[in-house]
Prior knowledge:
Elements: H1 4-17, H2 69-80, H3 99-102, E1 119-120, E2 123-124, H4 130-144, H5 147-170, H6 178-185, H7 205-210, H8 225-243, H9 246-255, H10 257-267, H11 279-296, E3 314-319, E4 323-324, H12 325-331, H13 336-342, H14 359-362, E5 368-369, E6 377-382
Amino acid sequence: MRYLPFTCIFLLLTTTGCAVKPGTAQSGTDSHGNSQPEITRSETSSPDVTQPGTANPDTAQLSDAQRPADQSSADQTAKAQPATTQPSTAQPGAAQPGVAQSGVAQLGAGVPYIPQQLSFAGETVPLTDPIVRDRLERELIKNVYRHSGTLTALKRVQRYREPITSILTKNQIPADFLYLAVAESELSPIAESPRAAVGFWQFLEPVAKEYGLEVNKYVDERRHLERSTEAASRYLSRLYRTFGSWTLSAAAYNGGPTTVTNNLKGQQVSSYYDLYLTPETYDYLFRILALKLILENPERYGFSVPEPEYTAPTQEIEVRQDLNLIELARQYNMTYNQLKYFNPWLLYRSVWSTSDKYYEQNKAFNVMLEVPAGKVYRIQVLK
C-alpha cells in the first residue's frame, strides 16, 4: 500500500502526456525536448480578424443576461432599427433642428441656401448665369463655415448698422454698402491690411487725406466711425458718377477705378459679372453678397443672433486745445483703456522725434493730444 501514491502519480503523468499530439512541443520545451522560455500570448499580439457583421466569438454564446450591459442594449437598439436607411429630405443649406440655437453653422449640411432672386443696391444679380451662381456659392461656403469671422461680424453689425446706414442714406448711398464695410474690415476700427489700409473702410492714407480725413501722429480718422463713413460716402458717390453702376462702383472701390475702366474697355463688356479681373476683385462683390445673405438671415445659415454688445452710456465733449488724455479720463471716472475703447481714432503710439512738441510725454505712449489751431475734436466719454 505504501507504493500506491507513487503509482497514481505515474498513471496521471502518463495519461496527460497522451493528450499531446505527435510532433508538437509541450509548453516549456522545443520539439527535441529541450527546455525553452515559456511565451504567453497577449490579447493584442494578433489582429482581430472578426469580419464586419459577424458575431464576436467571445460573446456569441452568451445570453443577454451574461453580456455586458452596453452590448446588450446596443443589440436591442439594432434589432429595433429598420434594415434600410431612409434618404434625408433636408434641403441643402436648411437649418437643422437645434443648430440655430447653438450658434454653430451647419457642418456637413452641404451647399448653403441660395435664393432664386438677389440684388445689390437695387441692381439684379444674374443668378441664372451658372458662372455667377458658382462664384456666389463659393463665397457663401467660405463665409458660412468661417465661424469666428462671421460671428464677429454678426455682433458688430448689431452695434454699427444704424449709424453707418443712416450716414449712407443721408448721402444717397444704398444701404447695401454696409456689407462692403463688413467685407473690408469686419467692422473693426483698428483693422489694418498688409498694404497699410486702415479702419472701417480700409482707406490708404493718401486717399483718406484726399477725402478730408485727418491722419497724423495724434489721430487717425480712418478709425473714426462717423468721419470715415462720411468720407467713404463721398468716394462712392464719385465712383458712381464715373461708372453709373453701384456694382461696378463696389468693384472699383476694391480694384481701383483705372483698373476697372481699362478692363471694361479691353474686354469690351459693360457689366461686372462679365469681367475677368484679379482674383481679389473678381470675387469681391460675391463676398459682399454672401455677407448680405448671411447677416440679413443668420438663422437660415445656422447662426443664432448673438446678444447685442454691452456699451456703457457715453456723451460727446468738444476739445479745442491741447490736453493730457490720462487727466481727461480721470475727470470722467474713466481709465485710459476705456477712453481708447470709445475713441479708437486717438492713436496709442507714434514715431516721435526729439523736436516734436510733446516728445518727452509721448515717447512711451501717447499721453498728450495736440489740437491744431481752429480744430475741434469730439471725444466720447462716460456719462
